[in-house]
Amino acid sequence: MSQPQPAPWGGVSPDPARPAPGGHPAPGAIPGQPAAYPVPGQHPGAYVAPGAYQAPGQHPAPGAYPEQAGHPAPGAYPAQAGAPAPGAIPAPYSGQPVPGQPPAPQPGYPPQGVLSCRFCGSVPAAQAKFRGHQGMLVVMRFLSSEGPFCRSCGLSVFRQMTSKTLVQGWYGYASFIITPITVLMNLARHGRVANLAEPRPNPYGPSRPPMDPGPRLLERPMTWIGLVIPVALISLIIYAATQG
């Protein structure tokens, strides 16, 4: 019968043929080799079930992945950037904006760049400003009407203000020069509204029928009266100068 051999440190070296207390081999014991040191924190010779203990600095045993802070649970799929949560409603159907796409137009909020007429609310419309002038010998009066206008409302404002200016704007020393300048400015801005398409109801807000443009500028009697007035005034001045 073999006797235990003294260990270099004064103890007794374990016998590889003798099982650990409790009838189980020591953890990590290999037949024919000295028994492993006891697991830190455990009673010497205590049995440790596979996967139940993770040695410090070692990987978890198979089948015993512990839930640690910052690590997903076993079988969990890590979330991806930009991916919706499980069961979440996709953005196009939940009312949320889709990344990389412009927001859809909402009722009452026209898209950027779409103008509606300030008088009737119809579309399309263009930005323009028509002016008028009244000369009253010593004093004078400047008038203006600014858009945006649809085609019908813009033509109506242009024709009314221009024809009235031709009749009311000649009576004064400065007005005799301001009136033709005002008429030429209106003629230059006339194309902004004349080139628009026919007005139609506004799909983004309330609208009503536009104004009636009325007859063309040269088809109005007031326009011809306004053109005759400067000619008559100039003729009167020339006649008075020759008689004097």
Q: Could you give the topology of this structure?
A:
Elements (H helix, E strand, L loop, with lengths): L90 H4 L34 E8 L2 E8 L4 H18 L6 H20 L26 H23 L1
Antiparallel strand pairs: 1-2
Helix pairs in contact: 2-3, 2-4
Please give a handful of descriptors for the protein shown.
membrane; 2 strands; 4 helices; mainly alpha; two-stranded antiparallel sheet
| Secondary-structure element pattern, one letter each | HEEHHH
Q: Radius of gyration over alpha carbons?
A: 49 Å
Count every helix, treating DSSP H or I runs of 4 or more residues as helices.
4
Mean pLDDT comes to 74
Task: Specify the overall morphology.
Answer: elongated
Structural class label: mainly alpha
Alpha-carbon distance between the termini?
163 Å
How many E-type strands?
2
Strand order of the largest sheet: 1-2
Which sheet architecture does the biggest sheet show?
2 strands, antiparallel
Low-confidence parts lasting 5 or more residues at pLDDT below 50? 7-13
Taken as a percent bin, the fraction of beta residues is 5-15%
Helix content: 25-40%
Task: Describe the structure concisely.
The chain has 244 residues and is mainly alpha-helical. The protein has helices spanning 91-94, 151-168, 175-194, 221-243; strands spanning 129-136, 139-146.
